[in-house]
Design goal:
The chain is mainly α. Helices cover about 70% and strands about 0% of the residues. The protein is built from 14 helices and no strands.
């Protein structure tokens, strides 16, 4: 029996790993394929393929039989960005069925790299529940504040959520909100939901309150940029 197209692509990339990018694009265009999935799993088990590539390509193939291995890679945190690939791969393979598992891993996975990989998976899925889970994980120290901020900025987090972070009484809340605003300001071409005049005014007030208590958490350059943002949007 002739090999499926997906299996042929996998065999080619296993022979020449430098071709993984075009292979990934081609695999995403095909239906989920069990033989291709198991060829990658076997290559991972016997050390012929690195964890990051296996996670990425299993996500592109999208067959449910690859989910346990992708989750294993995410939790074990083997490095080389494998965790980030694995989190996104789980989201691609399982869709909204992955939300509960990724949300749990976001706070309970034993390694920070695994928790941040779960955050990238939730970013891929998007939606209010994912945004709030990522914000809480950053605020509470489960993931780096800068990772949380970059994701929240990309997902166009609401002004209400940013105000909650600023009013949390935690330095991490101020850091996340500051970096999220900087992301918005530096990426005007992105399709980010604009803030209304009222939302901006309320956000300015929240920044002022937070800076009174935690302004020392920011570098001098970042503190200056925050004050410039306040001056542009709220005066003073």
């Amino acid at each position: 029996m002739a090999a499926s197209k997906a299996l042929s692509i996998v065999n080619e990339v296993l022979a020449n790993q430098a071709s993984f990018k075009p292979a990934a694009r081609d695999l995403e265009k095909l239906a989920p394929d069990s033989p291709a999935t198991h060829a990658l799993i076997d290559a991972f088990r016997d050390g012929r393929a690195p964890a990051w590539m296996v996670a990425h390509l299993l996500g592109c193939i999208g067959h449910d039989e690859g989910c346990p291995v992708v989750r294993e890679i995410l939790v074990s945190a083997p490095g080389s960005l494998a965790e980030s690939y694995a989190g996104v791969a789980l989201a691609k393979m399982r869709g909204n069925r992955a939300i509960d598992d990724l949300t749990t891993l976001l706070t309970e996975a034993p390694h920070k790299a695994s928790r941040e990989g779960a955050a990238y998976g939730l970013q891929h899925l998007g939606g209010p529940a994912a945004v709030r889970a990522i914000a809480a994980a950053g605020r509470d120290g489960h993931i780096q504040p800068k990772v949380a901020a970059s994701i929240l900025g990309a997902l166009s987090s609401s002004s209400e959520l940013l105000r909650e972070l600023l009013d949390s009484g935690l330095e991490r809340g101020l850091l996340i909100a500051t970096w999220s605003i900087e992301f918005r300001e530096s990426a005007p071409d992105r399709s980010l939901q604009p803030l209304t005049t009222q939302e901006t005014r309320e956000l300015v007030d929240a920044f002022r309150r937070s800076l009174e208590h935690h302004g020392g958490a920011l570098s001098k350059a970042r503190l200056r940029r925050v004050h410039q943002w306040i001056a542009r949007h709220g005066g003073g």
